[in-house]
Every structure is written in C-alpha cells, then in structure tokens.
Amino acid sequence: MSVALPTTTAAVRRRPRLLRSVNLTAGGVLIGVIGIVALVSLVWTPYGIEDTQGGRLQPPSAEHWAGTDRLGRDLFSQLMVGARLAMTVGIGSILIATLVGVVLGLAAAVARRWVDDLIASLLDIAIAFPTLLLAMLIVAWRGASLESAILAIGLSGAAVIARLTRVAASRVLAMDYITASQAAGTGMPRIIVRHVLPNIWPTLIVPLALQFGGAVVTEASLSYLGLGSPPPNASWGRMLQEAQATVTAAPTAALLPGILLVATAIGINLLADGLRDVADPTMRGIR
User: Fold this and answer.
1) How many Cα atoms within 13 Å fall on the side-chain side of residue 148?
2) What's phi and psi for 74, nearest 5 deg?
3) How confident is the model over 159-175, as pLDDT tens digits?
4) Distance of alpha carbon 171 from alpha carbon 180, whole angstroms
5) For residue 20, is pLDDT > 80?
6) How far apart are CA 127 and CA 276, in angstroms?
7) Residue 39 contacts residue 85 (beta carbons within 8 Å)
8) Is 265 exposed, middle or buried (0-12, 13-18, 19+ CB in 10 A)?
9) CATH 1.20.200.10 holds for 25-47+64-283
10) Is a pLDDT exceeding 70 seen at residue 31?
11) Alpha-helical segments (H) within the chain
C-alpha cells in the first residue's frame, strides 16, 4: 500500500526558503573569500607587486602560482592587491552613495512640494546620465587616482539611492502613526531616526549590494581605460588591459582577472538576492 507524500503549504514554502538560503550562503562565501584575500594582501603577498625578477610570461608554477606578466611581475600577488583595491572601491563608493543619497532623499521627502519636485527632476537627470561617462568626467577633472574613482562611482550611485529613499520615506511619512506622532509633538528628526530609517532600509539594502558589484566593474573599466588607480596599485582592469597584447603567450594573465570580476559580480547578485528575502519577509513565500 503506497502512502502519499504530504504537500502542505509549509512543505511547499520550505524549498524556496532553502534555495534562497543557498543563494545567500553562496554569495557570502564568494565575497567572503575575496574579502579575506584582500585583508591578507595588507600584510602579505608572495612577491612585491613591483618585483620584476620572476621572468617574463612564465606559466603557473610552484614559485609563481599564477605565472608572471610581460614585465616579470608575479600575477598572484597582483590579483591579491587587485582584490584589496576592488573591496576598497566597493565599500568606499557605497558609503558615499548611502550618505549623499539618503540625505538627499530624506530632504526631498520632508521638504515642500516645489523643493521635492525640483530634487526629483534633478535626480531623474542624474540617473539618465550614463554612470561610466559621469565617472570618467569626474576622474578626468580630478585626475586618475583611487580616491577619484571612489568619489566618482559613489556620486554616480547616489542618485539612485536618493530616489529610492525619497519614495520609501514619503510612503512611511504618509502613515497614520506618523501623523499621530507629529500631533503628539514629536520632532521630524526624531521621527526620521525612530520610524523612517528603520522602515526604509529593507528597500535600500538590495540596491546598495548591487551597486557594490557595479562599483567594482566600473573601477575595472576606468582602470582599463587608464583613468583608474595608477601604478603601482594593481587593478584587475589594468591587468586586463596590459594582458591583451600577450593573451596568446600568457592566457592566465587575462583569464584570471576576468574570472575574479565575474565571480565578484555573481557573488554580489546572489548575496543581494538572499539579503532581499531576509530584509523583506513578504518575499519569503513568493516564487
């Protein structure tokens, strides 16, 4: 006699939750490994990134785990420093985007109607402007440096965060309990800290996570064009640019930075997908 397997709602929902947990874990592991490599590079690398005594275009070996580039520099050491650079750009640009974007968005949400409309129009213009082009203009104006890249990428992402903050904050401020708090004499700064910010962070966490991955790719693009962090800093984008002339003789010099960029982008997307479900409980029963 066969027994039918239970197919309750709880059993059906358990599988999507498991899949999303896998996404969160896989994304966390990928980004965590890159982050650990970045931290280790602060205190140790197999060789100095300016050491050219390894021999030109050497294949991977026990002495040089990823081989050497056309100048004889150790590729594994450059990849480690590139990870540190990517994490620095990602974290720095997200901090700038969060600070500028949240402040602008909250200002628009609590301001008078004409100020709100003005800020919203300016944000739409900023969002329509290509991110890479805006970053290139800022870097060209301030000069090529790591700080310029972080500032440019952070300001480019601030417009999106500001618009999301404005919409989410306006929705919260229209709630009845906010009106009751204002009637009771609670000041707007206290309302923002106690009610608005805790309720809008689930809306912002996923775009911020995705902008982290976008910042890493944008910095690599700027470095590829010669507008990123200058030598001796080893950017994955500049490694790709330098390796294109010798890709047939030393393919690892081009493949490894590209693989790390793809892995970072995939890790961030998986992490953002998992964070969305953690931040927004209403998504857990969907899919």
Assistant:
1) 19
2) -70, 125
3) 999 999 999 999 999 99
4) 15
5) no
6) 23
7) no
8) middle
9) no
10) yes
11) 9-41, 75-110, 113-128, 131-142, 146-173, 176-183, 188-191, 197-224, 236-243, 252-279
